Amino acid sequence: MPVTMGDDRSLAWLKACGGGVLAGLALRAPAWCPSGPWLMLPALALLWGLNGRAGAASLWGGLAVLISHRWLLALHPLTWVGVPEPLSLPVAVGVWMVCAFAAAGLVGAWAWLAGRCDPRRWSSMLLLACLWGAAEVVLAGSPLFWMGVGGSLLPADPAWAGLARWCGAGGLAAMQLMAAWWIWHLAGLRGRGRQRWLAFGLSALVLLHGLGRWASMPSAEVKREAKPSSWRVALWQPAVPTREKFEPEQQRQLPARFQSALVAAQQAGAAWLVAPEGALPLQARLLEPAPIPLLTGGFRWLRGQQRSALLLVEAGDRLPSKALDKHRLVPLGEWIPPWLSALPGLSAVGGIEPGDASRLWQWPTFAMAASPIASPAEVNARPALPPPAAVAICYELSDGAALAAAVHAGAEWLLAIANLDPYPLLLQRQFLALAQLRSLETARPLLSAANSGPTASVSAQGTVLDQLMPMQPGVLITALQPQVEQTLYVRWRDRPLLMILIVSSFWRGRVGITRFGHRLGIGR
């Protein structure tokens, strides 16, 4: 029986529902469900089949974000920031829905464009895949906490993700769109053509995985120069519930907890202690002089403006002496437009202003406190100052280009500080996967210190080496081996992706002009 127009439309909406659910689960599925490309590639293949159907594709995008960002519902209750209890759940649901509608609009626009480009052609496929990848790069630098297709490979497929050394998250997203296009195209073939197409695609996937594994391995020069760990670093996880943070009892206990963490870090031989985002209150000081340097998230005043920052308390001091301000701020949660500043309950910190865009942290010239190390040879090898770092405060970690720029400017390791409470473990898994991706892109080890987790150490190859139990207080002592090798992504960042996008645009435009000319009888 022939398929009717109504059946075809129903099938499109079924594809949209199935693909959206798979895509949402691919961005950190539950423990009982496989994730990564095993879900994302079929989801994207279904999306390719929705080309020209903007409405169905919008449903795909909306469902994907509703599932992957379901942790936003943990914002409720918001009474602790002044939102009335009857409005708390509607506000949390509203934020969740706004994110879903934004994704629906973007994916719908992509599908509308795909329907006008004849996606069966190679030129159109390359254009549409690179356009998606470039869009993810732009969104990663926006006020949104963007978790896109590029990061979905981790932790499930570290071999393929290793290609981030060359192309970054945007390139990984484009490659997954291309692989999904192959699956979609394969489904429409029959006979020997299908067998050849299947063999070609599988060979390409094997090659991509092999290249990714090779790209993520340390270079021969790095292997020759590898030394035992130069620095021992302590990472503090206070595990203070955010909704209780500003209660008098918690504020009274905080200075003593800081001091205990510093003492524990010093006794373990750490060179410095890292505390999470927002740990040090505005204008706060330590109970006693710091026995070792303290890097902590906190707040400060600068020219009459409040800033969220990474603060340094030098050994022997009680007050911060240097800061790197947070640049990307959460709309309403942190940054409040002037015309809304009079409304209560929009921000727990009363509204803050962004700092400089550079994420490069340079230590000031001061004498580091002595700390135990493995051998006298390490004493001679140790530099006078700790190595510079590329710093991400909370969801700045999603912007790989900004951290790559800091690495290009001299950063030898990555530091992420965050406060992901009251969100559930789902967001912690997504955050840790982003940390692994940033390490792969830059070939730099990453240390993450978060209030309730993830507090972890990630190697320059993107492997999680050490991690504290989530939601539990503790101090993690870990080794840090700075790196100076610069990857292709650090050197070029997303310029190759943009060049391919421009070339494919001209290629697709030339094909379109040629076909139009043939219709008019020109050039025959």
Morphology: globular
Number of helices: 15
Rg, nearest Å: 25 Å
The residue-averaged pLDDT reads 86
Order of helices and strands: HHHHHHHHHEHEEEEEHEHEHEEEEHH
Biggest sheet record: 6 strands, mixed
Oligomeric state of the chains in view: single chain
The parts where pLDDT drops under 50 for at least 5 residues are: 1-5, 369-376, 378-383, 516-520
* Percent helix range: 40-55%
Could you tell me the number of beta strands? 12
Please give the order of strands in the largest beta sheet: 5-4-3-2-1-12
Distance between the termini: 41 Å
The portion of residues forming beta strands comes to 5-15%
Structural class by helix and strand composition: alpha/beta
Detailed description of the structure:
The structure is a single chain. This protein has 524 residues and is α/β, with parallel strands linked by helices. Helix content is 46%, strand content 13%. It has 15 helices and 12 strands. The protein has helices at 5-26, 37-48, 54-68, 85-115, 122-140, 158-161, 164-187, 191-215, 220-225, 248-267, 376-381, 400-408, 425-442, 488-492, 495-519; strands at 231-237, 272-280, 294-302, 305-313, 322-325, 360-361, 389-393, 413-418, 446-450, 456-458, 464-467, 474-480. The strands form 2 sheets. Strands 5-4-3-2-1-12 form a 6-stranded mixed β-sheet, with helices on one face. The chain has a 6-stranded mixed β-sheet with strand order 6-7-8-9-10-11, with helices on one face. Helix 3 (54-68) crosses helix 4 and helix 5 crosses helix 7. Mean pLDDT is 86; it is low at 1-5, 369-376, 378-383 and 516-520.
Give a brief outline of the structure.
Helix content is 46%, strand content 13%. With 524 residues, the chain is α/β, with parallel strands linked by helices.
